[in-house]
Design goal:
Shape: globular
CATH class of the largest domain: Alpha Beta
Helix content: 25-40%
Low-confidence stretches: none
Structural class: alpha/beta
Distance between the termini: 61 Å
Number of strands: 12
CATH topology of the largest domain: Aspartate Aminotransferase, domain 2
Oligomer: single chain
Radius of gyration: 23 Å
Number of domains: 3
Bound molecules: pyridoxal-5'-phosphate
Largest sheet: 7 strands, mixed
Length: 420
């Protein structure tokens, strides 16, 4: 591992080890051990290609095997996974994509970056896209539905895929917050044409930054692969001519690095444990919290499929929800209901969309001549979603909590709610 032997060696590895906050004493021991090592061929090549030991390729293989999707493409974020999927599905100028009014803004931003326009519709009490709202929003220009499995809660994928089939729409599942969750026993992200995972630091499993595009369709995979890697640079025959029209086009560089892939691989091995432990802890809380009149458990679409790291409650009125949030008994939506704090998870704060903001003064894609009828929004366009979100309280669950800690938490929450 000597400095002179390869481009990336001991010095770089020690910086990575420092990220884990090891003591100086341990770091010195590790350095001493590794100084003895001689580099292996290809060690320290952080590029996913030309690399027989590629962690990225291994991660893709294991992720696909784990979730049961045919193709998994590792990318550098959940946002780039969504953009790659939208582009691969052929969505672009003048196309409308239906997204929920409750999601992290990246879901909507990805649509705009892909040059299409978002049509933002209400959720229902499951905190996910309302099938009725989708039906009402479909127009001849609709090309895709983008359900978001918020807070690790599955969307109603049977109804959504049925609507999509009826209107010949693509389904791109934003599974950023729900890696490892299921709907009717099938992994989230494998119901639609695409599933898009985020591996950022706050997600179920993470690699600092990162993402995965999941699909069962070889052609859609080929196009996502092309776009994520600057114009199909790394097809099997790198410099070959286009094998089929629609394969070669200009793209981005959304490649995952070997460093992220190495972390993602280790995290993937923990996924089952994380999900099963969170579900167990959520179950203990649910079984032991006594809810007073005026509040009920959120009716999630598939209680067995939740990731389990959040347990949402629905209050009858906003004031009760605010009292419980202010007392610290439940979490809310980062102060949106309690203090009117701006928050990028709710459509009424998306001034980029409400104000049709664009990176350039031409106003693309909103002003694109392909856009025939642009739906305009105000902060008051989603009263149903606003009401549900303002009446929702969230209990956070962690895989690191013991059963005893959960029982104590259940007692504290029961007593806290009774006092509100
Ligand atoms: C619902 C949702 N979609 C997309 C994203 C974007 O993922 P990333 O941060 O990896 O780009 C996030 C991240 O918070 C998210 O919560």
């Amino acid at each position: 591992m000597g400095n002179q032997m390869c481009k990336y060696g001991l010095d770089e590895l020690m910086e990575v080890i420092d990220v884990f906050n090891v003591s100086e004493k341990s770091a010195a021991k590790i350095r001493a051990i590794l100084t003895e090592e001689t580099p292996e061929p290809n060690a320290g090549n952080f590029f996913r290609y030309y690399n027989p030991r590629s962690k990225t390729v291994e991660f893709e293989k294991q992720f696909a095997a784990h979730t049961g999707c045919k193709y998994a493409l590792a990318v550098n974020s959940g946002t780039s996974a969504l953009i790659s999927a939208l582009v691969a599905a052929g969505i672009g100028p003048g196309d409308e994509v239906i997204v929920p009014a409750y999601t992290f803004f990246a879901s909507v931003s990805a649509v705009v970056v892909a040059k299409a326009v978002p049509v933002i519709v209400d959720i229902d009490e499951s905190l996910t896209l309302s099938p009725e709202a989708i039906e009402k929003a479909v127009t001849p220009r609709t090309k895709a539905i983008l359900p978001v499995h918020m807070l690790g809660l599955p969307s109603r994928m049977d109804s959504i895929t049925e609507i999509a089939k009826k209107h010949k729409l693509a389904v791109i599942e934003d599974t950023a917050q729900a890696c490892g969750g299921t709907y009717r026993g099938r992994y989230l992200g494998t119901w639609g044409d695409f599933g898009c995972i985020s591996l950022d630091a706050y997600k179920v499993i993470g690699s600092g930054e990162g993402g995965v595009v999941m699909t069962n369709d070889e052609w859609l995979y080929t196009r996502a692969q092309s776009y994520h890697d600057t114009a199909a640079c790394w097809r099997p025959d790198r410099y070959g001519r286009e094998r089929k029209e629609g394969e070669l086009f200009c793209g981005e560089n959304y490649r995952m690095s070997e460093l992220e892939a190495a972390v993602a691989l280790a995290q993937l091995r923990k996924l089952d444990w994380i999900i099963s432990t969170c579900r167990r802890n959520a179950r203990i809380l649910k079984d032991n919290i006594q809810l007073p009149a005026g509040v009920k458990w959120t009716e999630v679409c598939d209680p067995d499929g939740i990731c389990g790291y959040t347990l949402p409650l629905l209050f009858e009125d906003k004031e009760f929800s605010i009292r419980a949030q202010n007392a610290g008994v439940v979490g809310g939506n980062a102060g949106d209901a309690t203090r009117g704090v701006r928050n990028w998870h709710m459509a009424w704060h998306w001034e980029h969309i409400i104000g049709l903001k664009s990176a350039t003064k031409e106003g693309c894609p909103f002003t694109c001549p392909h856009v025939k009828e642009l739906k305009r929004y105000t902060a008051d366009s989603w009263p149903v979603t606003k009401d549900i979100i303002h009446r929702t309280g969230v209990i956070g669950v962690s895989q690191f909590d013991t059963e005893e800690a959960m029982l104590n938490a259940a007692k504290r929450i029961t007593e806290g709610l009774a006092k509100c």
